[in-house]
Every structure is written in structure tokens, then in C-alpha cells.
Write a structure and sequence with these properties.
Length: about 220
């Protein structure tokens, strides 16, 4: 496994060039920047143009690594893999707080990262930051060993779910989340980063991001 480029601050390496267009000028960007538990939207479905409710689905256009907002009717077309196979994937809404899986077992030297398994089985680590793209392929054997001990990771759906971790500045967050949550985190880091280490406002917002994940998890 080849290592990442040097980090901009201890615990966080240079980040992900997100395939999703997440700037404020796009409908998806505006939706993703809102808290997970309190999204309100008046945007149209990006497939059929119908108005969207506050809570709505996302589809991943796999060929372009692009997220699209979708109404319920369009999302249902892809719920079981129907529609345009290999092109659009429905992003699930499963969020699980995990106990036990350690990113250090994957050779990760940073404290904020997420891991996505591709449709071919390759697992790639991504690092949110204010600068360009930094990602690297995780050793297959290391991932297989970790997933063999943690059923949630073994069940992670390719491309549309991620293993998200924050082990920095006193945080101990380990989650299985939909990929759109990771895109929101990337947008947050890009928007809020200041100075050499991100600034206190950024780290407060990251802590709030994980608190919102907790709020979004159904009562257990």
C-alpha cells in the first residue's frame, strides 16, 4: 500500500476530491449542507423534476460518482437494483454506531477518514480536507481481517455505504453511514477550514456533525 501525502494538520490528511457537486449553487449542495435530522428542501427531483419533500432519497450515479436527489417514485425504481443496472444505486439510510473496528488496523495514520468498498471489492480510504484529492487503496487482506470480525463492515454495501471514523481531538466516532453523509462532511471541511489546523469553529462543527448522526439513529 502506498502512503498518503503529508497531512495539513496532525490527525487529518489532505482530503477527498468529491465526485459529487456540492457547492452552494447546486440543489444537492444545498441539501447536503443541512443537518441530517433537520433537512428541509424545496428542490425538484433530479430525475423527473417533481417537487421533493423535506426528507428524500439520494441516488448515486456510479459511473460519475455523482449524488442526485430523488423523489420516492424514482427511488423505488432502484430499490432492488432495477432501472439502469450499473448506473444508478439507491443510497440507503442505515446509520450504525460501531464499537470495536479500529482504523489503525487498516494502516490509517490520520484521525478523520472514511472507507468505501467498490463494486469490484477494492476498499479506498478518503480524507476530507480543504485541499485537493487524497485517497489510497487499503490492503485487501487488512480489510478482510477487520471485516471478518465485525459483521457490520462485512455487510457494508459497495459504493453507497462507508465506514466513517473520527479519532482526533478527543473524539472516538466509528460509524457505518450512507455515502451522502460522507459527502456532507467533505463539504463542511472545505467550507469551514481556516488557518493551518482548521480552526476551532471547524472542529466544533465536526463534533456537531457526529452529534447529529446520533440524533438521526432510531431509538434502539
Amino acid at each position: 500500500m502506498s502512503g498518503p501525502a503529508p497531512g495539513l494538520t496532525p490527525g487529518v490528511a489532505p482530503g477527498l476530491q468529491s465526485g459529487c457537486t456540492s457547492g452552494p449553487a447546486t440543489a444537492l449542495g444545498r441539501v447536503m449542507e443541512r443537518p441530517v435530522a433537520r433537512r428541509r428542501a424545496a428542490e425538484p427531483c433530479e430525475l423527473c423534476g417533481e417537487p421533493l419533500p423535506g426528507e428524500h432519497a439520494h441516488l448515486l450515479e456510479e459511473r460519475k460518482d455523482l449524488l442526485l436527489c430523488a423523489c420516492r417514485a424514482c427511488a423505488l425504481l432502484f430499490e432492488h437494483g432495477e432501472g439502469a443496472p450499473g448506473r444508478f444505486l439507491l443510497v440507503p439510510d442505515r446509520r450504525l454506531r460501531l464499537a470495536g473496528p479500529s482504523p489503525s488496523e487498516l494502516g490509517v495514520p490520520v484521525g478523520l477518514a472514511f472507507f468505501v468498498r467498490g463494486s469490484g471489492g477494492t476498499v479506498v480510504a478518503h480524507y476530507p480536507s480543504p485541499a485537493g484529492a487524497t485517497r489510497w487503496e487499503v490492503e485487501a487482506d487488512a480489510w478482510d481481517r477487520l471485516a471478518s470480525r465485525h459483521a457490520e463492515l462485512a455487510s457494508m454495501r459497495p459504493a453507497v455505504e462507508a465506514f466513517l471514523v473520527a479519532m482526533v481531538r478527543g473524539m472516538d466516532e466509528r460509524w457505518l453511514v450512507p455515502i451522502d453523509d460522507c459527502h456532507r462532511l467533505v463539504a463542511l471541511v472545505r467550507r469551514e477550514w481556516t488557518g493551518m489546523s482548521g480552526g476551532q469553529r471547524l472542529w466544533d462543527r465536526i463534533a456537531a456533525f457526529f452529534a447529529e448522526l446520533d440524533e438521526a439513529v432510531p431509538d434502539r
